[in-house]
Specification:
The chain has 444 residues and is α/β, with parallel strands linked by helices.
Length: 444
């Protein structure tokens, strides 16, 4: 019996454990931290061996294959030992994809991937497809494959998950954009991070498709130097494309296999230029899967925004409070600030991942009246924006930050939580950060 060892007892780890057990592996789950009760219950139910608070090396180094959860870096000594021993260390999507014949739509990018994944899933469901949405969002892909095999999977895939693939190949790959993010995991080199994102297309053939942002100079430059085999379907707001999607007179024009259809941008339920791009990407997928044009248009007009992404919370004394906690990097914060049409009090801060804040200076100068820092270490933010904005305040809790924003905001202003940083210094994750923001606003 082959031995499958899983490092990390979270959503992807436990999902892989269940699928591995079902497929006849001897499974062992090891987590250096604590495993949540809901996941322990699942492991107990399936009679899967597990440990927490430690890694028993003898058991782990005896594996035939190891599934590593995306949060564990490749540089961890135990992972290096496994690689030196020649034991394959793979990600959940690599493991699970081996047990399904479904059509896989893989979506990655620095920003917009969650919205594009949810939007694509929304359109495919409306088209009557048997579709599962998983990956970096919601349920684990492996768990889905073990429970009920769908005909289509729409997977949101992070660069960390792509680092652990060998044969994984989506039939349709979407690359929303590439901006500096997670550089702390890639030796602070953008080209390493870019190479990681492009792994989504590395096993694709001429029968597969790569949908990507043709306005993104990093993507365009990479494709010229490293051509892929898949059929290219670019989308653009600034130039016409023969195949793919472009914008003309406030109409989205999509051409796939010589079939063309158009729709006005004002039917899209989500605001902002970046959401036109997300809609273009999702609609191109829908065209490839031959969903009716009317269904695509309807789906774009009735789609609800993703929580914690430009989510309007409340209006208090004519001040609008916006929760964009999902903006964990500079580019996401750029989109948020760009869409502000009123003076803005901006709440920013958290764990800096090697951020370069200079692209934000013109927008901050134009739109931001006060900055509220929320983080354990705000020195870099103060240093960068101290000369751009007159009012800057440091806070240590979300309640304090919202209270300060309330003091500075006047009628007609916006208060925007768009942190441009990871959340782990003060919060469990970006959802916890966003929920605390919403609660603090409701308690004003």
């Amino acid at each position: 019996m082959k031995k499958l060892v899983i490092l990390g007892g979270g959503e992807s780890g436990v999902g892989t454990a269940v699928l591995g057990k079902q497929k006849g592996y001897e499974v062992f789950v090891s987590d250096k931290g604590q495993i949540a009760k809901k996941y322990k219950d699942v492991l107990e139910h399936f009679e899967i061996l597990w440990e927490e608070g430690k890694h028993t090396e003898a058991k782990i180094l005896d594996a035939d294959v190891v599934m590593k959860s995306p949060g564990i870096p490749d540089t961890v000594p135990l992972v290096k030992q496994l690689v030196e021993k020649g034991i394959p260390v793979i990600s959940e999507i690599e493991f699970a994809a081996g047990y399904t014949d479904a059509t896989i739509i893989g979506i990655t990018g620095s920003n917009g991937k969650t919205t594009t994944t949810e939007l694509t899933n929304h359109i495919l469901k409306a088209g009557g497809f048997n579709v599962g949405m998983a990956g970096n969002i919601g349920d684990s892909f492996a768990k889905m494959v073990s429970e009920k095999n769908h005909d289509f999977y729409v997977l949101e895939i992070s660069s960390f998950q792509l680092d652990g693939i060998v044969d994984f190949k989506p039939h349709i790959a979407v690359l929303t954009n590439i901006t500096p993010d997670h550089l702390d995991r890639y030796d602070y080199k953008l080209e390493n991070y870019t190479a990681s994102k492009f792994r989504i297309a590395m096993n694709q053939t001429e029968e597969d498709y790569l949908i990507y942002d043709a306005d993104d100079p990093i993507i365009e430059d990479w494709l010229q130097k490293h051509p892929v085999k898949s059929q290219l379907l670019p989308f653009s707001l600034t130039k016409k494309v023969d195949q793919g999607a472009y914008l003309e007179n406030n109409q989205i024009v999509i051409t796939v296999h010589k079939q063309q259809f158009t729709m006005p941008t004002d039917i899209i339920s989500l605001d902002g230029k970046h959401n036109i791009k997300n809609a273009m990407a999702s609609s191109t997928v829908a065209q490839l899967t031959r969903i009716r044009k009317e269904t695509i248009r309807e789906s774009l007009s009735n789609f609800q925004a993703v929580p914690h992404r430009m989510e309007k919370v409340l209006k208090i004394q004519n001040v609008t409070y916006i929760n964009d906690s999902k903006a964990t990097n500079v580019n996401a914060a750029f989109y948020a600030l760009e869409s502000m049409s009123a003076p803005t009090v901006w709440i920013i801060g958290g764990v800096d991942k090697g951020n370069d804040y200079t692209p934000l200076f013109p927008l901050v100068h134009e739109k931001v009246k006060a900055i509220i820092c929320i983080g354990v270490d705000n020195d870099k933010i103060i240093e960068n924006f101290g000369r751009v904005v007159d009012i800057m305040v440091e806070t240590q809790t979300m309640r304090e930050a919202v209270r300060a924003a309330y003091e500075f905001a006047e009628k007609g202003d916006n208060v925007l939580l768009s942190p441009a940083c990871a959340s782990f210094d003060l919060f469990d994750n970006y959802e916890d950060r966003g929920n605390q923001f919403k609660e603090a606003v409701r308690n004003l």
